[in-house]
Specification:
By secondary structure, the protein is mostly helical. It contains four helices and four strands. 64% of the residues lie in helices and 7% in strands.
């Protein structure tokens, strides 16, 4: 899971270099103009996601080394830590609404957030059972 978070960060920085996955127009001082696409300043959502994924990678590394979490915890943390922020970052991206006011990225994130929460809940349950 740790290496997947790092790989996802690399993909997002690649999206930035290729002018892919565009953010919505903004007037913020850190807005980026993608000359290949247009001359509109946009949210650099690729940077937001890439930095978050690096932070997630480091957090998972620290959790594994210092805490030695029970089986399933890192997987659950990865799923929730990867897709919950992505769900909210999708609001800053351009894209069509496909279902219930959500875009494709949000629709795909919801089940993975739920699975991650269930994995975390189950791993916590197993830990309590072992303690008895």
């Amino acid at each position: 899971m740790i290496s997947i978070a790092l790989a996802a960060a690399c993909v997002r920085f690649g999206n930035l270099m290729n002018s892919e996955v565009l953010g919505k127009p903004t007037s913020l001082p850190w807005a980026v103009v993608f000359d290949r696409v247009d001359s509109i300043p946009r949210h650099p959502v690729q940077v937001y996601e890439g930095l978050w994924y690096i932070a997630l990678c480091l957090a998972l590394l620290l959790a594994r080394q210092r805490w030695a979490p029970p089986q399933g915890v890192l997987s659950g943390l990865f799923l929730v830590g990867m897709f919950l922020p992505r769900f909210f970052l999708e609001f800053a991206k351009e894209g069509p609404v496909v279902f219930a006011g959500m875009n494709t990225g949000q629709v795909l994130s919801v089940p993975l957030i739920i699975v991650g929460a269930l994995v975390l809940g189950r791993s916590g349950w197993r830990t309590k059972e072992r303690a008895r």
